[in-house]
Amino acid sequence: MSSGRLVNAWSSYDSEEVCWWEAIFPFELGPGVLLPWQDAVLTAADDTDMLRIYKLDRIGYLRERDGYLVDFLRDHPESVPHSEDEWRPAGFALNYLEAFPDRGSKTRLTYADQEGEPADAWVDNMHEFAYPLGLIRSYPYSPFSIEYFISELDDTDFPNHVGTIFSISTDIWFPWTSSFSHESESGLMDEILDNRGLAAINGPRLNTFLHRMRDEVARIGGIWTAKGGNNHLQAQLNEEGVNLSAPRPTP
Q1: Is residue 155 classed exposed, middle or buried when 0-12, 13-18 and 19+ CB atoms within 10 A define those classes?
Q2: Separation of alpha carbons 239 and 20, rounded Å
Q3: Rounded to whole angstroms, how far apart are CA atoms 209 and 38?
Q4: What SS3 state is found at 202?
Q5: Average of per-residue pLDDT across 69-91
Q6: Which tens digits make up the pLDDT trace of 185-244?
Q7: 52-53 β-sheet, strand order
Q8: How far apart are CA 217 and CA 208, in angstroms?
Q9: DSSP reduced 3-state for 230
């Protein structure tokens, strides 16, 4: 990447699942894996600035008053009472993180300011973030989401498991991106843009988080997969995250 002025060569998509990484825990591992898993997810999300959780109204949590969510849940498991479902034990709140439209959490993104210099923003709504920067298409999704789920016999690939999906709605972490959100002289929305400058800053945060999650899944004995993305994103995607050294994809 040549030195010089940064540009916002990334897009915001009309889906929360442009690409996603999935942690899968078969039922036979038992519900005892869930609270340590939650600790690992919340700690890594905060450490890497991938998800800073400010509040969870359903459990009366407020970061400014209560400190880190992971510590709050350890100290106050009664804030999430044990349900009849053994896969939602007391103190387990990963399934509470998605509460559209006010998620109560934000992701740190580095973008190009008007002078072409890197600037940081804490983002929970990609439309509110992208539109003022001149991206003509943007959508009110969070840039990064964590979703807990329980899947039973209807899942033909991995029946009888619980898991967590880590998904993104923007390609700001990728070195080669789409012109989907931008004006294009050719009128094409699938042109490939050079986003290596911003990817070199944003990508390591995402990759560090995903590396930690993948290692924890392996330690527990689960399954880790990477999915999604259009063709040129697929070429830069792997189980460890985003390949920041990927060559320019072919159209």
Answers
A1: middle
A2: 10
A3: 14
A4: helix
A5: 90
A6: 555 567 899 999 999 999 999 999 999 999 999 999 999 999 877 788 989 998 889 999
A7: 52-53, 105-112, 118-123
A8: 14
A9: coil
CA 89 to chain centre: 24
pTM of the full predicted structure? 0.92
Q: Residue 113, Cβ neighbours under 10 Å: how many? A: 13
At 188 the pLDDT is 57
Which residues make Cβ contacts (< 8 Å) with residue 206, sequence separation at least 6?
Answer: 48, 50, 144, 168, 173, 241, 242
Distance CA 170, CA 14 (A): 9
Tokens representing 142? 């969070």
The C-alpha angle with vertex 174 and arms to 135 and 224, in degrees rounded to 5, equals 125
Specify the amino acid at residue 29.
L
Q: Hey, what are 81's tokens?
A: 């009472």
pLDDT value of position 163:
94
- The pLDDT score that the predictor gives to residue 72 is 96
Q: What is the pLDDT of residues 119-178, one digit of tens each?
A: 999 999 999 999 999 999 999 999 999 999 998 655 556 568 999 999 999 999 999 998
Q: Determine the angle formed by the axes of helices 34-47 and 196-220, rounding to 10 degrees.
A: 160
The strand ranges marked E within the chain are 19-26, 52-53, 55-56, 61-62, 105-112, 118-123, 144-151, 161-168, 176-178, 192-194, 223-228, 237-238, 241-242
Q: Got the DSSP string for 10-56?
A: --B-SSS-SEEEEEEEEGGG-GGGHHHHHHHHHHHHHHTTS-EE-EE
